[in-house]
Amino acid sequence: MDISIRIGGEAGQGIQSISSIIARTFVRHDFYVFINQDFASRIRGGHNFDQVRISNAPVHAAADKIQILVALDKETTRRDIDCLADNGILLFDGDGIGFTSENPNHLSIPFAQIASEVGKSKIMINSVATGAAIALTDFELRQVLDCLQEQFQQKGPETVENNQKSATAGYDFVRQNLKEKPPFRVPPAKSVRQKMLLTGSQAIALGAMASGLKFYSGYPMSPATPIMEFISSQAATYNIILEQAEDEIAAINMVIGANFAGARAMTATSGGGFCLMVEALSLAGMTETPAVIVVAQRPGPSTGLPTRTEQGDLNFVMHAGHGDFPRAILAPGYPEQALCLMSKAFNLADKYQTPVIVLGDQHFNDAYFTVDELNLRDITIDRGHILTDQDLPTPQAYERYAPSESGISSRILPGHTKAVLYADSDEHTQEGHITESATVRNQMVRKRMQKLKGLRREIGPPEIYPSGEAELVLLGWGSTHGVIKEAVNKLNQNGIVAQMVHYSELFPFNPDHIAIAALTKAKIIAVENNYLGQFAEFFSKSTGLSVDQKILKYDGRPFTSHEIVEQVKDVI
Amino acid sequence: MDISIRIGGEAGQGIQSISSIIARTFVRHDFYVFINQDFASRIRGGHNFDQVRISNAPVHAAADKIQILVALDKETTRRDIDCLADNGILLFDGDGIGFTSENPNHLSIPFAQIASEVGKSKIMINSVATGAAIALTDFELRQVLDCLQEQFQQKGPETVENNQKSATAGYDFVRQNLKEKPPFRVPPAKSVRQKMLLTGSQAIALGAMASGLKFYSGYPMSPATPIMEFISSQAATYNIILEQAEDEIAAINMVIGANFAGARAMTATSGGGFCLMVEALSLAGMTETPAVIVVAQRPGPSTGLPTRTEQGDLNFVMHAGHGDFPRAILAPGYPEQALCLMSKAFNLADKYQTPVIVLGDQHFNDAYFTVDELNLRDITIDRGHILTDQDLPTPQAYERYAPSESGISSRILPGHTKAVLYADSDEHTQEGHITESATVRNQMVRKRMQKLKGLRREIGPPEIYPSGEAELVLLGWGSTHGVIKEAVNKLNQNGIVAQMVHYSELFPFNPDHIAIAALTKAKIIAVENNYLGQFAEFFSKSTGLSVDQKILKYDGRPFTSHEIVEQVKDVI
Amino acid sequence: MVTLEDFHSDDPIAWCPGCGNFSILKALKKALVDIQQPPNELIIVSGIGQAPKTPHYLRCNCFNGLHGRTLPVATGIKLANHKLTVLAQGGDGDGYGEGGNHFLHAMRRNINITYLVHNNQVYGLTKGQASPTSEYGFVTKTTPRGARNPAFNPLLLAIACDCSFVARGFAGEIEHLAALIKKGIQHKGFALIDILQPCVSFNRVNTFKWYSDRVYKIDVNSQYDAADRINAFEKAQEWGDKIPIGVFYRIQRPTLEDQIPAIAEKPLVAQQTDPAVFSELLETFK
Amino acid sequence: MVTLEDFHSDDPIAWCPGCGNFSILKALKKALVDIQQPPNELIIVSGIGQAPKTPHYLRCNCFNGLHGRTLPVATGIKLANHKLTVLAQGGDGDGYGEGGNHFLHAMRRNINITYLVHNNQVYGLTKGQASPTSEYGFVTKTTPRGARNPAFNPLLLAIACDCSFVARGFAGEIEHLAALIKKGIQHKGFALIDILQPCVSFNRVNTFKWYSDRVYKIDVNSQYDAADRINAFEKAQEWGDKIPIGVFYRIQRPTLEDQIPAIAEKPLVAQQTDPAVFSELLETFK
Ligand SMILES: Cc1ncc(C[n+]2csc(CCOP(=O)(O)OP(=O)(O)O)c2C)c(N)n1
Ligand SMILES: Cc1ncc(C[n+]2csc(CCOP(=O)(O)OP(=O)(O)O)c2C)c(N)n1
Ligand code: SF4
Ligand code: SF4
Ligand SMILES: [Mg+2]
Ligand SMILES: [Mg+2]
Fold first, then answer.
1. Whose CA is nearest to atom 2 of ligand 4?
2. Could you tell me if the ipTM is greater than 0.95?
3. C89: which of A131, A159, B276, C198 is 20 to 30 A away, CA to CA?
């Protein structure tokens, strides 16, 4: 089973209330759901859609064709009808949106009328539509009604009732008007309620909080804002301070301050906001202060397409900041990985006392994924070398930047009872005082850069799927994990022996993993959501292997596996 | 002839007044002088020196050994005495600085006493020392006195006289105490006064002004400040507006505004300030607004060594800014080139309507070079495609981002009588209005990136010196031009057939120039003032040629040719 | 004659129906027609947010730059071509959050720019976080327990910085607002017009009605002396049951452009450079 | 007992002989001894400039960060561990130029930090360019015809932002300055102490003598009511023949930390996280 339902309409029409009820209902009955959110940078109007893909096997990408299109406005019928699969069905309110069609698969339903009459308010259109969409499957309505109950119970029994009645009416209307039995078969539902439905942003935020995040400062910027908002919603419960900063410069400097004082701290932003953090990135590198920064990418340059997706900032984050200093860059491909990588990000930052960047993007951050489990035991907390009051037996002169083989010096936190510490953005002596000495400078540069060696060893291997040998490798990183995997499956079904090599731990490049057979023998095709093929270039440079082809997309929209498969066929 | 005089002492002791009189005097008599400035980040105290190298052939780098050391403080005797050549002479005021020496080449002169007695003020120490140093050569004192006359004439005849008397007394003292005739021979001086003595910063500023700079905005930051200060000193004469901004973000945005309105505008900063400009760099890329930014590098990360030198920001400026957009990067190696490259920077910025970065560094910017001529005819002004009132015959709808094969659209300036223009940092239509269209997005990305093709063709070849074939190539860029050239000369004198390949036009890399025999056949050694060998990596990636060895220095000090030669010998 | 038609733009408006920005756009157009501003000689520089979309909805020159950076771009444009009428336009987050530093220093410079801040006391475009002008206790997704800081008062700040024209308008008073904008543009020097702008999507506290119930005009039939700084400072503290709108403070002091001899004759853009003139300067290095 | 010796640092001082910073350092140490501040529980966060070198010359915790960014770092530290005494220290360029925006918002937050601004009315470390507080007409290499903008008045700005403690000291009045610093540290909330600091190398106008001839203390034997905002605003406008020093404005309002339940019991740094506690939260996604 693999059904996709797209709900299209204007911003403000409640697209998400439909998609989320449908998605939640299915997830609670042990299905896998993936929602891809496509919206314009405006609050009302414009053209937007949510595409809900439902399957009994894991799904991590949007489908190319949809089975059900719910059009909340006329624009949707114009723009999205081509996405319908051959047997796909369009649901719309003909009078409401002024659209008529002779096509028997185009079903007009008086959403507005039913909403007003049955649900006592036009707002109920969304529940009517939800019921109508469900009616096209043989899924039980009762399960949707339960979900509505839960969703609206805080708003009181009347709201619950109106929503349930509306959904039922929508459902009934469709069932009455269907000539045959519902076209889309759904396997029997299990009521186990084990799976979780969550966005990439939520996974990132959860990972951070469970890793001991105590302080978050940020400035709103799409698509990073939901991370801040989710943490904000939990801050009171989990004793986290969330401070909205006056700008991104303040945000990152606050984060550096908090980390310096010993509280795990992070910020999240998008490329434009990250630009403003670059000076402080270099500050963290020089003062050897941990800092975790999530960069949720969107299409640039500049303001670009603020609510859309791109993987265009890899080159930038890899080289951001003046002077050389160590950093690590991670880029999760799915929520379970986001959880682990956030834990890793904080551990690396603390252990190596240097900034760590986690790259997301609008597609990953805003998409809803279904996961079987998020294992909190995957989270370990390693604060690195911090000397407590007990570790220093007597009051003494402590050296913040004492030399060591690893390049890492033990930290103390301000407030230590036995010692004080000096941290400096100027080149400094072991004690942390400003120096002009060429000798000390050389030592300090080497000390800092030495940390790259350790960091490199921490970087895990790419994911190879399926294992074994292949003629063709699709090389990807970060958010394209799901869609490349799906493309690889399709290619293999088509008799093209393909393999995914997916990097989620990007920098510093760990050469231990290059020997992988897949990479050295196969034809390599990079798949990236950017114009230049930034990772491909980095990969080639780091491995000496050439990337044979690039499949690139930079129109602000995520790939579908179909697109990848077609383009692979074109280039091989 | 090749004499180096180092004047060492504390900040505030007037080191520069000595070096500049000596330098000017020699330059005015047709010698070549090079001054390397080495100073700490403080206003008084610390250890600093100026090293004045004088030759009758062009010199573009500091010498390894010095003939004359003028110690204005005791620290200088401790630190710098090892730099003296075998026959080198130390001049110092034994009582004044509390230093004694038995060495016959160490000459104590009562600078302070002479200054007070003859020059009527302790300030005259510098002139005494100047005279004393000159006395070690067979250069005529009169010529120094003339230079003092010119230097101090605004301050009145008494000041002139006191300085001249002090210099004479210093000169006489040395001559009387020299057992033999002056140890350093100087060829007969020509009084032609044709050569110019100027810093890299001054050459950059001159290049900008002569290229039609009308607006400068910046925020002080070493080593970029002298550019601003020099332009400031000329602003009233040449009708340039210089506005000191509240921060670097304001500076670059003002520059973008002024360029947008049609006035050639630039800013200059160092790495840390450039960090703050990165968001606007991307803005210039997206809105297709010309902008010229000079980044005078200093050792990072962060505040680093604020008054010292490094070439550590190449990777950063190459990839700075979110999203992909075209840019050019130039890095002059000597003043004549700085003049031409500033002209080129403005022309490329205007022609391709995109940002251009000029990389300097503390060494290049603060060093004084002697040039035979700066040819203003080397400066051409090409404003690119600007439609004047006459170019549009009737009032009409104008499209700022109209498509074209080159990716360049014609600009109009605001205030145009026939049309208005819309520029936007969001992805935009041809008209400049905000769009969400995938199709338009694709067109616009390609249009902007298309400009890289044209830019690439504009990038000139590296300088090959000497021409012909060689076994060994020293690969360099920017400020190391002079020192590498000198090292190559020395190597060739040592029987090692070496060649310099020097890049001053760095990005986008023009592959037309790779075929150069030197590059494909020889062993390549990169020489860079940074830790990673950033250019070497970029060069390898761009050419596919491997760099065999790297000679890197990152202690904040410039190379000497001696160092390079020794290290070359070590690695070949 | 400049008419409303001359300011017509075809770009479809992306604001929410009922948004206060529509009224501000109307008032702005009205003011421009009133002063007979030729669209070609007008440029609006805006930031990023809902308000900064405004210049697309007018026919005039537009530079829609970065969030928070309207004023430096506007300053660069004005200094390059001071014959242009330069407006800067943005939101409260844009101007008082991200752009706070430029705001301070633009006022100090007293550059002849009119700055319209659409103050909806919330971040609109990013879907409703607290802004610097959000009232104490204002609940949003980033301030679920209410904003912890008192609202930033831009007028007090402007008066403290000796901004030469300080006014507050209200989107619900179009005529009055148009008159303020007109005065602002006609004023020689930096003019701040903070405009109370209801956001129907994200600010359910400071609504059209909330503002309407409270605003009153200080400049009508009153003894109010806008040249008196102390008085202005006192007046600008009023906020609550009664909210004054009008010109709070207005003085004359030299503008930045007036003090620059380089452009006394003609603007920078009208000046050509002949590289040869620098040969004299080269001599000074010999 | 905390003694002067406890604050002794071996790091050699890099200021010019005669610089006003020496006196400020002295006053600071004196104040710290007066309030018996344990060095270990003190952290000074500074920017880049001459003034920001100060914390190296004391024995205490020090974070010497970026030019203009003292206050956000200090804010992060204070929120992570509000048991620490947090001082921020910088120059006039650092704080009122580059750092202007953070200054505004730190005052609004009323976070319990004491902010010492060594105001020498010039950029010292970069060798003498005009700063925001340079007086109109001040001649430097970047303003060869004199500064075109009136001097920025930090006190007026602070009062406009309702900064809860606003004071001015003078390096030439060490006792008085020490008392101000002491009051500032003891004040609950954000305390601004702008300190007139002669720069002997680059400011030949506003010298020790120039200041000494002009300063007078407002807080001694006077009826001055520091809680009166209007009064303070008026007083802070005095500049010229007579320059007041002392506490201009002081009020009590809730600090940022006081409003955050998360740290009511213990500071963030003292709180451990057990990942397992989030299992409950995970349930909400099912
Ligand atoms: C550097 C940067 N940070 C953040 C953003 C995201 N952003 C866009 S609009 C906006 C705030 C909008 O609020 P406001 O300025 O009050 O304007 P409004 O939408 O309310 O009119 C933000 C934070 C951005 N575009 N750039
Ligand atoms: C982002 C950035 N811009 C510029 C500089 C260069 N810089 C260092 S100190 C300084 C100004 C110093 O003036 P002020 O803050 O008044 O301190 P003072 O030296 O006078 O005490 C500047 C501009 C810098 N370090 N970082
Ligand atoms: S979100 Fe608010 S400010 Fe933005 S357009 Fe809608 S109503 Fe207006
Ligand atoms: S330059 Fe001025 S502020 Fe800096 S140390 Fe010297 S006297 Fe003090
Ligand atoms: Mg707003
Ligand atoms: Mg200063």
1. D199
2. yes
3. B276
